[in-house]
Amino acid sequence: MALTESSLDPQTARFDTVLGAGLGFSHLIRRGETLRIVDLEGNQAVDTLFFDAADPSERYSAVDTIRTQGGIYLSGGSPLMSTEGRVMLRIVADTCGRHDTLGGACAAESNQVRYSLDKKFMHNCRDNFLLEIQERRPELSKRDLTANINFFMNVPVSPEGELHFDDGISAPGRYVEMRAESDVIVLISNCPQLNNPCNGYNPTPVRLLVWAA
Amino acid sequence: MSETHKNEQWLFEEPLHGGQMWSRILRRGQLLRLTDVTGGGAVAALFFNADFPLERYNMPDTLKAQHIARITAGNVLYSDMGRVLCSVVADTCGWHDTITGLEDAALSRKKYGAGDYQALRNDWHRNSRDNLLVELAKYGLGKRDFGANLNWFVKVAVDAVGNLSWVPGNSKAGDYVELRSEMNTLVVLSNTPHPLDPASKYQARPVQLGVRVTGPADDRDACRRSCPENERGFALTEAYFR
Hints:
The complex is a heterodimer. Chain A is α+β, with helices and mostly antiparallel strands. Chain A is built from 3 helices and 10 strands; from the N terminus they run E-E-E-E-H-E-E-H-H-E-E-E-E. Chain A has a 6-stranded antiparallel sheet with strand order 1-10-3-8-6-5. Chain A has a 4-stranded antiparallel sheet with strand order 2-9-4-7, with helices on one face. In chain A, strand 5 (79-81) and strand 6 form a beta hairpin. A 6-stranded antiparallel sheet of chain B has the order 1-12-3-10-6-5. Chain B has a 4-stranded antiparallel sheet with strand order 2-11-4-7, covered by helices on one side. A two-stranded antiparallel ribbon of chain B has the order 8-9. Chain B is of the alpha+beta class. Chain B has helices at residues 59-66, 105-112, 117-120, 128-137, 228-241, and strands at 12-16, 21-26, 30-36, 43-49, 76-78, 84-91, 150-152, 156-158, 164-166, 175-181, 185-191, 207-213. Chain B is globular. The longest helix of chain B has 14 residues, at 228-241. The two termini of chain B are 32 Å apart. Chain B has one domain. The chains are: A alpha+beta, B alpha+beta. The interface between A and B is large, with 45 and 48 residues.
């Protein structure tokens, strides 16, 4: 878990915003640009997908990323692979050290399975993804939502094949940064999950910055 | 691991040749057995609700609901709508992968060479991605419908720091897995080498398929009872068919 810091100065970012707890977001990141996600208050899962801006049928693939890098956790140096076997982005700085791409996004229906049949009403990441693409990304639909990245989330897998959502290993101010190797749309849900420790039972805001190439 | 009785009545049995693709709508209550005839098999698979294919197999939901990172007997395959597409009711192998994806044409060429149809005829190398794309097209589905797939008979181990290793000899000659369909499930298969299989020679092994009627899960079913999450998953599935 090598930690790598960035030399980029937030004052020179071309885009800088705070995304409140439980909100959806999408943005065009151009080739050579750098996206930073800052976990402002610590242990906040940031559910994230990427789509090729020119042809959104090409998109982030968790299984291709895992197989290509030969490991299940994302960290500094990880290539974020597409469904067409291309590197879409690469993680160039990471002060957290481990991010998940097996846990997926919470949804109304999976919350019912995981926690209780009466949890369907709760806010969840898939609803955020769906509302964001319905409002702002008409080229995308539910069929384009596949296994995502959960930045700052800790989902260890044991050699016996068990998987658990554990307490986070992130902390206030930790960040992850990735550089785009082609024009991509980033789709984010700042996770509203209250039923497991992925957000420390207290969803909080994150800061999103983009630097020009 | 568990085995079922030996005296079943098969609706049909057919070979799935090395390199072959296959699909079928497995009706609720039907069971599909895949047998790895010679051992060392690898069958890539995708699953959809045949009545409404926008609902499909979801790897993360399957893993996190059951606190697993591999598939074996007692596990179920969840759709992205909180329902159980299929249950794994028998498995003599013990580990099936769902986190390392498919082999595509570029990777296949790199490992086995390009080959050509003129020389190889029906032994011309096929890969799981192309095969599944072809089979999906028959149902009006395509690239955008690809999610993380299952790899029957394949074990990719994860060590204490998260690194992967492909495990040789995971599936022995005669090992089989049985899937009971809990919905009307479109099952799409490709019997093609796994991308992490290090063999330099193209080896797609023969697999035997059999389908029989077993009926949906009863109240005491082992998959239903394997965890409280699955009890709820079956309840949601039954509500859908009510």
